[in-house]
Amino acid sequence: MLSAGLLSACGGDEGKPTLNWYINPDGQETLTALAESCSTDQYDIAIQLLPASATDQRTQLARRLAAGDSSTDLMSLDPVFVPEFANAGWLEPFDGEMADQVLDDDVLAAPGETVQWEDQVVAAPQWANTQVLWYRKSLAEEAGLEIGPDTPVTWDQVIDAADSVEGATVGVQANRYEAYVVWINSLMQGAGGNILDPETVEDGKDAEVTLDSDAGRAAAAVIQKLADSSATQPDFTTSNEGTSLGRMFPADGPGEFMVNWTFVYQNYAGTVGQTGGPADEAQLEDLGWARYPQTVEGEESRPPVGGIDIGVGAYSENLDFAQEAALCVTSPEAQAQLAVNEGLMPSRQSVYDSPELVEAYPADLLELWSSSLETGGPRPKSAFYSQISGAVQSRWHSPTNVDPDTTPEESAEFLRQVLKTEAIL
């Protein structure tokens, strides 16, 4: 209660107002610097830190906004929560020229799609995230797997390659949390399907559930194959984005294949000679990257789409200032700083082509990231996404129990019941 009172006081009637910007923990140092540089003679921007988990971030913001909190001026939102917040009337849409600035032709397709709801621009893309396949070049060579930025491979090929080399593994995110749904969703889209029919997804509770499909069975088959192989990592059922990092460059052993987000490159480049990182620059050179694996051979994969969008709270007492600030913290210059300093990649193509990024990252990696975002697959764009994600997690976890013959059908029926409020999570 004391905290809420103090925050409300920040936007008092006297003096220059302070805009509260709720951020997630990624990139705190650069975001704090952006808050300072984007403050003006008319307003200041103050950072307020959200919890680490995307689910907990959503919960805290939703509670504030449901209560009509006027101290929530700016917020960093996981893209999957934008439809829910916009549908509830918690986000102030950008109009006219400001909307055109937020969503011009420079914004990549997948990030641009995440900030639109019912023909309105309801948030501004700040940074965009996607996954690629990271691997040891020496491991791929030993396994006889031809792979590279321009050489696509399938999940079957990756699992078989790891299976063929003693000690090699495949790193994924399969704990019971949001990133597991990211994996399932991308596997399904790579097989030509979706969790919900894209034509009806914005119908909310009346959306058509399409989990029980050939694509759902193909996704389940990949998870089952990895679970039954020798390539699983010891913490497979509780794995997350961080658990696989140390297995790329073990003290002895061949390393791994790993699907993970863009932060991985800077993580390894910044830990050369340290525990868990490459032993030296030569070992860092052994790090390879390729497009997200295909679910079905010959069908283009649909890499995951994530990142952060900046929303303006509809109850803010300083809406014009807040939207102006949102444009500043999502500018090309701001996105370049986040990419170079924090490994949080841009949502704008021009920033990938900027001198700062060309100097900081290998050219083929930048091209791989931007092309993956241009053709990536978003998760269901629904105001009921939290329920959708929770229902999928409850029936697909543990991954060791996933069965193509039963899991898609059972999960589809449960999701229908949840959306119709005939079942609870």
Automatic annotation (TrEMBL):
Domain of life where this protein originates: Bacteria
Entry keyword DNA-binding: no
Protein family: Belongs to the bacterial solute-binding protein 1 family.
Classification via Gene3D superfamilies: Periplasmic binding protein-like II
Database matches in Pfam families: SBP_bac_1
InterPro entries membership: Bact_solute-bd_prot1, SBP
Keywords: Signal, Transport
Entry protein name: ABC transporter substrate-binding protein
Keyword Electron transport (UniProt): no
